[in-house]
Every structure is written in C-alpha cells, then in structure tokens.
Amino acid sequence: MKIAIIDDGVNISDLYFEKVEQNLIIEDSLEVCERKDESNKISHGTICGAIIKKYAKEASIISIKILDEITRKGNVNKLCRAIEWCLENDIDIINLSNGSIYYGDFEKLRNVCNKAFDKGAYIIAAKNNNDMFTIPACLPNVLGVKCENKSIMNRYFNNIYKGIHMQKKAYDGIEFLVNSMHKLIKKNGDIYITQRCNSYANAYFTSCVHNVLEKYRNSNSNDKSRNEFNFIKNAVIGNRLYNREWCNILRDVSYLTYGYILDMSNNLFTNYLFFNFKYLNNYLELTKIDDKQFDLVIIFNNYSKNEVKNIQNSINIKREYIRSVVLCGNAPNKIKRFLNKNNIMFWCEKICNELEIKKENGKVNIPIIFFSGNEKNVIGTINKIENLFYSDGYYAIKVSDYNFSYLYGFNYFSKGKEYYNYLKSIENKYSPDIILSAMNYNGIKGEGDAIIKVDDNYQYEIIIEKNGVCKKIYTIDICEMYKSLLNYYSV
Prior knowledge:
Strand order of the largest sheet: 3-2-4-1-5-6-7-9-8
CATH class of the largest domain: Alpha Beta
Distance between the termini: 58 Å
Strand content: 15-25%
C-alpha cells in the first residue's frame, strides 16, 4: 500500500536507505515533476520516512517535496496540488507534517480534504507545534495528531499501536495524542533518537493506519469505496481504549459537501446552508436514494416513537451506503445507539455540550459585535459582514446559539451555557481579529463591543459606546454599517 509523504523530501541517506517508489517535487508553477535536486541530507521528511518504514515495513513510500529543506516553508497552493495529485493517482494514505494556521488558507485546504474524504483517502496530519489551530489537522475528516505530553514522552518504544491515546472530548479537534520519540538505526549501526514534536508522532500514527488498512483489506472483500474512517480509529486505539461511540462520532459538520435532508421541523433556513442538498419529503424517499455513498441530515423536532422506528428502519435498509448521519435538534438516543451498533459515523448536537472547554481566565481581548433581531436576517447579515471583513484582510469568526446554525457555517454553542467562557475559548482557539456573535449579549457585552439590531426589513440599528456616551446609527445599507464599524474600531 502506498504512503505519500508531503514534506521537504525523503532523501536516501544514512538514516533512510530503502527504496523511494517515486521522488517528486511540486514546482512553483504547480507542475508535478521528478525531483532532480536529490541529496543525502537527513531532512525532516527523511526522518518521517524512516519512522514510517520502521513500523510499516511493507509500505511503498512516495515522496512529494513542497517545502524548502532549510526554511521548511511552502505555500498552500503547493500543498493542495500535492494532495490532488495523490487523489488522481489513487494514493490511499497521505502523511502531512505541515498545514496552515492562516485563515486565508483554510477554505482551499478544507475543500481538497473533503475531496479526499469523498474518495476514501486518509489524511494523517500533525497539529502546529505551538498548539495553534491548524488545517488540515483539526478537520473532522482528517486523522489529526499531536505528541503525547505525559510521562510516556520520556522513553522511546518499539511496539506497534502503543503510545497512542484518544482524546474523546477534545475541543481543538485533535483526537490522537501519540508518542513521538523513536529509536532509529542508522546505516552504520548508530542509534538515532527522534525528538518530541508533532510531526514524528504523526509519522508513527501513519504507519499504524497503514498496517490496519493492509490487514483489513487483505481479509475483507468489501469494495475500497467503503469508507473505513471510524474503523481505523477503533482499530488503532485498540480494545483497551475501546469506545465505539467516540470512534463513530465526527467532531463537526464541515466535511459536508452534499447531503440529503429529512426535515421534521420546517425551521431550516435553506438559503444559508453551507453545503449542497436535496430535500427528502418523507422517510420512504430515503430508501430510494441510488447513491453508492451519501450523507444524511435529519432534523428532529416533535416526533412519535413510530416515526423514529420508521426512520431507523429506512436507515437500516440503506446502511451499506450511508457514510454519515447528522442528527440535528433533540435526537432520540435510540437512533444514536442504532448508528453505533451499525458503525455508522454521525454527528449530533449533544457533542457540542460534551466537548471539554477549558475554564478561561481574563477578558476577551478582541472586538465582539453582537447581532440580535430576526434570526434569518441576522444570519444573512453576519454572512455578508464576514465577507466584507475577509475582503479587507480581517479574520472574522461567526458564533451562534441559534438552532441549526452549525449548518450555516457558524461555530455553534447551545443556549444556557457559559457564553463568556465560550467566547474566550473561541479567541484562544482561532486567534481571530473579531468575533461576530448571534447570541444574547445581556451580561456578556464588554467595553468597546458593538450591538447591531436587525429587523424584519433588514434595517440596522448600530449601538456603540465611546467615552461612556452611547451612540446609535441607523442604516439600511450593509456597506454603510461596515464602514461605521471600521471607523469605530479604528479610533
């Protein structure tokens, strides 16, 4: 089975002296070429390759160089092109020690990772060593890794699948804590001990994924198109940490590109869904879907036991083809138990309440704009304001406690929680320039924060405060509103 190492190049050297099946480089033109500047330097990619081959001896290594060996810098376009090349050439496993912490890169990387997920390729990606939010590592359809920070870091090891811990309720999206210290043997017999860093933990985890897939596919006649994402997680962490539910759970819904929606609420703002969709008029239409793999979104409201039973029976008929189920609203536990029993990946609102958010001290140090009023119009207004901030180079994060706002691309937080602590966590997680908030601001509005009231006719009341004096501005033009906010925060 092939493993692509996207890095600064795997060099034949004293540390890595096995065959590299293909040695490629992404040129500045984004052309994929055979690498001609080969060296014997023990580069970062070389160490990752040596770790992978130590534990996955049968793996075929493909080196794709996108980073400079000295500066270890590249760009998002080269990274996306490298991943696309892997998909074009049916590479099963992609090892990424690199990613981006720059918000301007996130959408490009999210799109290409969604393509990989749709195709059944597995991206194993390391989080930034400074523990900053990193794409692709923090995406729900990527196996995100960082190094274990406990006493296990004080020793190296040789036994496969040991030194891996699954974070079941991690807020940052990184599910796996992995040992990064490994004993490698150089060509001359000298011992080389890898240091503590997320990249080397990631390389070891990649070898584990390879071995699990190799064993599974050799003993299973299922088609490769069957997504094994949750199976891999459970197999790698082993029975001693067995927890089927958390292996089947997806941490957020950003992986959706197309979904079939069964809406029992009639309260969904379909104009603002971030993914393409098709409505199902009833549960029977679910059984008539012809797609070989699809995602299902179920929006619960008031429901009877009989309705739940019918939905469950319909899922059971199509379970071979359902990749994931998104459970919105007050989903019955019976459905979740059924999905777990059948190893169907799912997301539900309950997860948002269970993720561990650290108690944060201090105030939020960036501006917060609180929006209130007609919920549908608030969602539309925030989307437009976000785009205006983005076009001027500002990183704006959208947060909301509105029903189903996670389907509109918002960071969701359920009503009644500690809002201020949540907003502080958002600041620490993403390091944005500004937060756009659709939630009740009473008791959490800080000095300098603005309030925008949006009525049914898209008329805006902007409430700002300077030197203890409250000022109100009225407008129907969203660009005028944006200019007023820029003027307010530029003083």
